[in-house]
């Protein structure tokens, strides 16, 4: 596929297409030639040992991290140095972080209204309506007037999901959304994510929650040492992992 | 013993001087802040061409006594013909503006250091969250970085305000009748340095302490939205191994 075809948005194939993507941090190669195509509506779970490049991979998709080599096309838009393309991609891609990253000086409601007003140009009343509707969906609308520090970790992460949803993204990136949570709060966040998956949203999720992967994922991607080592349906991956590295990893996260 | 009648007589003149001190302080702090924000961004920039000059400026200003800086601007610049012939001469001839320029440039260096530190304290994750939501760099600064940096900078900036108010007493060395200048004049009239200087000191003290109190209240109000005392105690508890999975 030519660069021109990719830019024009006429690309057949995925809503996210990465080819030969590389990324270095100093002398450390975090990504060593990643090729990945994600279809519209597909749910992908990325797993692998820490330091394998999973987070770096999804952070490249909305250019929170800048890749060094290869190409990334999101929703027909080639990610390069051009700010207009980056802004276009970020409008279509939502992100949920491990550490929630809610704005501490704003209420829950204000957190959710900020981007729709500044980026989508919604009026305050419209933005509030959208925000309340998503806060209701993650069952936290009653906390709308509170500040993030007054909420539990699980509640904060649900707000973060609602905040991302308020931008009505086509693609949602989730970077270990349950890793920073106390165990009793993991379930409420996972349930919210499962509901999200039911909406037909394209999801790319880095997680070690293998139960979630089994239930929701169309495809599981196993990464190690900056490369995609193995991919397949959850069924294939959990039943018959092809590589020794995947078997070792699974024996550690499954019980 | 103290002669209270001298103090009472001196008070109106000293308060007039305090007015001058107030005007000087406000203008110095404004000039300082206006220069400090771009300086602070330059200081934190990756490019050597930005952070190099900013760091050198801060280093030089901090390494020279303020009194000398006042003298350089007031006595030094007039020595050059091109300054005397320029349209700016009415400004550099006037001790009022000379103090504001000298101490404003001085305050800019200290304030830049405070602002740069506060900007660096804003968690990277919050900036990433704003970017991921599609906010531009400027929107991110306006809505996330600067509001949080202001909260972080306030305690240190309070100190800078108080130091600046006290530093304006240097204006009295170049003929201005600020609070200190007015006190010196009154002493030469009354020959009662003890009473007059003590009164002036009391006025400085009441200005600085009441300002300090006001700023503390502002700080408390701004941080009311993250009351963390209770939570931070909890967070310091170690995570126990062997948690059951879910």
**SSE pattern of chain B, N- to C-terminal:** HHHHHHHHHHH
Radius of gyration of chain A: 18 Å
Instruction: Note poorly predicted spans of chain A.
Output: 1-11
What is the terminal separation of chain A in angstroms? 44 Å
List the total number of helices of chain B. 11
Instruction: Summarize the main sheet of chain B.
Output: none
Q: Please report the two chains with the greatest interface, counting residues with C-beta closer than 8 angstroms to the partner's C-beta.
A: A-B, 34 and 27 residues
Structural class of chain A: alpha/beta
Fraction in helix of chain A: 25-40%
The main β sheet of chain A shows up as: 6 strands, mixed
Structure in words:
The complex is a heterodimer of chains A (255) and B (246). Chain A is of the alpha/beta class and 255 residues long. In chain A, 40% of the residues lie in helices and 24% in strands. Chain A has a six-stranded mixed beta sheet, with helices on both faces. In chain A, strands 2-1-4-5 form a four-stranded antiparallel beta sheet. In chain A, helix 4 runs parallel beside helix 6. The longest helix of chain A has 16 residues, at 183-198. Chain A is globular. The model of chain A is unreliable at 1-11 (pLDDT under 50). Chain B is mainly alpha-helical. Chain B contains eleven helices and no strands. Chain B has a single domain (4-227), classed as MetI-like (MetI-like fold, Orthogonal Bundle), CATH 1.10.3720.10. Chain B starts with a helix and ends in an 11-residue tail after the last helix. In chain B, 79% of the residues lie in helices and 0% in strands.
């Amino acid at each position: 596929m030519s660069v021109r075809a990719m830019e024009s948005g006429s690309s057949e194939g995925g809503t996210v297409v990465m080819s030969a993507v590389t990324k270095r941090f100093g002398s450390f190669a975090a990504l060593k030639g990643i090729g990945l195509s994600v279809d519209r509506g597909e749910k992908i779970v990325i797993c692998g040992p820490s330091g394998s490049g999973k987070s770096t991979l999804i952070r490249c998709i909305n250019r929170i991290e800048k890749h060094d080599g290869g190409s990334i096309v999101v929703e027909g838009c080639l990610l390069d140095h051009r700010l207009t393309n980056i802004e276009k991609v970020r409008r279509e891609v939502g992100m949920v972080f491990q550490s929630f990253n809610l704005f501490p000086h704003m209420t829950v409601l204000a957190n959710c209204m900020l981007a729709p007003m500044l980026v989508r140009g919604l009026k305050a009343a419209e933005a509030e309506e959208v925000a309340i509707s998503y806060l209701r969906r993650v069952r936290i609308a009653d906390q709308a007037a509170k500040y993030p520090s007054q909420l539990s970790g699980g509640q904060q992460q649900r707000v973060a999901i609602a905040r991302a949803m308020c931008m009505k993204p086509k693609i949602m990136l989730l970077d270990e959304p349950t890793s920073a949570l106390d165990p009793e709060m993991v379930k409420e966040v996972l349930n919210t994510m499962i509901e999200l998956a039911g909406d037909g949203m394209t999801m790319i999720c880095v997680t070690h929650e293998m139960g979630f992967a089994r239930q929701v994922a169309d495809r599981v991607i196993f990464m190690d040492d900056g490369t995609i080592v193995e991919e397949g349906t959850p069924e294939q991956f959990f039943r018959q992992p092809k590589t020794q590295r995947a078997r070792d990893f699974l024996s550690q996260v499954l019980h | 013993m103290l002669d209270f009648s001298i103090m009472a007589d001196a008070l109106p003149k000293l308060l007039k001087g305090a007015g001058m001190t107030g005007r000087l302080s406000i203008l110095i702090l404004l000039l300082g802040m206006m220069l400090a924000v771009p300086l602070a961004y330059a200081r934190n920039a990756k490019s050597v061409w930005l952070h190099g000059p900013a760091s050198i400026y801060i280093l030089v200003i901090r390494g020279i006594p303020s009194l000398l800086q006042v003298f350089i601007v007031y006595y030094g610049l007039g020595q050059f013909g091109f300054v005397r012939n320029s349209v700016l001469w009415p400004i550099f001839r006037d001790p009022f503006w000379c103090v504001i320029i000298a101490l404003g440039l001085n305050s800019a260096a200290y304030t830049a250091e405070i602002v740069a530190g506060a900007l660096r304290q804003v968690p990277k994750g919050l900036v990433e969250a704003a970017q991921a939501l599609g906010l531009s760099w400027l929107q991110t600064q306006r809505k996330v970085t600067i509001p949080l940096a202001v909260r972080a900078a306030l305690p240190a900036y309070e100190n800078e305000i108080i130091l600046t108010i006290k530093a304006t007493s240097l204006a009295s060395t170049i003929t201005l009748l600020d609070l200190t200048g007015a006190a010196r004049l009154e002493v030469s009239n009354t020959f009662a340095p003890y009473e007059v200087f003590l009164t002036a000191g009391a006025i400085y003290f009441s200005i600085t302490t009441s300002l300090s109190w006001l700023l503390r209240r502002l700080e408390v109000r701004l941080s009311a939205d993250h009351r963390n005392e209770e939570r931070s105690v909890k967070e310091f508890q170690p995570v126990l191994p062997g948690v059951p999975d879910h």
